[in-house]
Amino acid sequence: MKVVRFLLGLVLPPLGVFLTVGIGPTFFINILLTLLGWLPGSIHAVWVIAKREEQLSGGQGIY
Description:
Blueprint: H1 2-11, H2 13-21, H3 25-36, H4 38-56
Main location: membrane
GO cellular component, one term: membrane
Family: Belongs to the UPF0057 (PMP3) family.
């Protein structure tokens, strides 16, 4: 599921963010960034998804 969220974050940024954090301020920020351009929305989406995965894994990273 993680790979799907990352791919959706690149292709359809708001959908990737929605599947990661649901509806909230982060989702609406991503919609605004996506309206400004696909690239800012995609960067924000990948960042949000990566941060959420880091939080879920305990912040220890991959070793």
